[in-house]
Specification:
Strand order of the largest sheet: 17-20-12-11-22-25-24
Strand content: over 45%
Helix content: 10-25%
Number of strands: 26
Number of helices: 2
């Protein structure tokens, strides 16, 4: 069989498979509104371009777009295609910030599930609160360094989206955190949290966020390391913190200060981790961490990634239940 014929047959098989898959998925309807939230009032947004997006393991991109009508209403009818687990959602821009629906359901999506709430923007006067901070610290690697996951839940309780401003030094960050002294190789975790690495500048011992913060909740997930020479840490907490959690792979490691109390062990990916917890931590409290002198090596660090997902999922569920508000996202998410 010639190479050309093989390629033709393979291409044909792909199209047949895609057609079969597409035929197996029924049409869906999305019917919602674009509304502007101002205080307790909502205002319909007319003539706003609403775009239907698809994100799948095969492809990702815009599927269709439509203008909202005089009452802010929009509607899509589409047939899902490609990977069966692809996610669809609608989005609209307002003030240069993108706002999204939740992932659309398997059948019709209407009402609140398809509502897009947008907000006016400001570069001042909005405080970003730290509703939660979770640190997970591994045992030393073969080279002696310890890895840290530092996950923040950041809340905007206003009715405006905070965007970066400018001052004499240039662009002004929307939020900033000072990293623990001695932290090395700090990065934003890919595919974790709501804030992409491109929106965060890590320099001079701090992580500065330049992404907009819409009303609601966002997660920022950082990873950094400490060299073998570090046997204790002193971390000043610059903001009031709703929930502070520290987890250790090493059973003899300890966390103190900031009202922390030992909670016993929790199990993640078959590993027993020591847990310390505090609530309603005041501004300028100081967290102190001490590591054991004997250094058992971490066999692997896959549990860190599993823990990251668990932390984010648990934090989102708890905080959304507490606040009763859904979060809006931005283009950097």
């Amino acid at each position: 069989m010639s190479g050309l014929l093989v390629r033709v047959l393979c291409v044909g098989a792909v199209f047949i498979s895609a057609a079969s898959l597409g035929g197996a998925q029924h049409s869906r309807t999305v019917s919602g509104r674009v509304i502007l939230q101002r205080g307790a009032q909502t205002v319909p947004v007319r003539d706003r371009m609403v775009t239907l997006h698809r994100v799948g393991s095969d492809t990702a991109g815009a599927v269709d777009s439509v203008l909202s009508d005089a009452r802010g209403n929009y509607r899509f009818t589409f047939r899902p295609f490609g990977a069966e687990r692809a996610v669809y959602f609608a989005a609209a821009l307002h003030g240069g910030v993108a706002y999204f629906t939740a992932p659309l359901g398997a059948a019709a999506s209407e009402g609140e599930s398809a509502e897009i709430t947008v907000f006016d923007t400001t570069s001042t006067g909005v405080n970003i609160s730290v509703r939660g901070r979770h640190l997970a610290i591994s045992a030393p690697s073969a080279g002696g360094s310890r890895a840290v996951l530092d996950v923040f839940e950041l809340g905007n309780d206003s009715m405006r989206t905070l965007v970066q401003g400018r001052d004499a030094q240039g662009a002004r960050a929307t939020w900033r955190v000072v990293l623990p002294e001695g932290a090395q190789n700090a990065t934003v975790m890919r595919d974790a949290g709501d804030i992409a690495g491109a929106a965060v500048v890590i320099a001079d011992g701090a992580a500065s966020v330049f992404a907009p913060f819409a009303p609601g909740l966002k997660q920022l997930a950082l990873r950094y390391e400490f060299p073998p020479s570090v046997d204790s840490l002193t971390i000043p907490l610059m903001d009031k913190t709703g929930v502070l959690e520290v987890l250790f792979e090493e059973t003899a490691a300890r966390a103190a200060g900031a009202g922390l109390a030992a909670q016993g062990a929790v199990t993640v990916e078959g590993k027993s981790l020591q847990r310390f917890l505090a609530q309603d931590v005041p501004q300028s409290a100081v967290l102190t961490i001490t590591f054991p002198g004997a250094r058992a090596q971490s066999s692997n660090r896959t549990w860190l990634m599993a823990l990251l997902g668990a932390l984010i999922a648990a934090a989102v569920a708890a905080l959304l239940l507490r606040s009763g508000r859904s979060s809006a996202k931005n283009p950097d998410a």
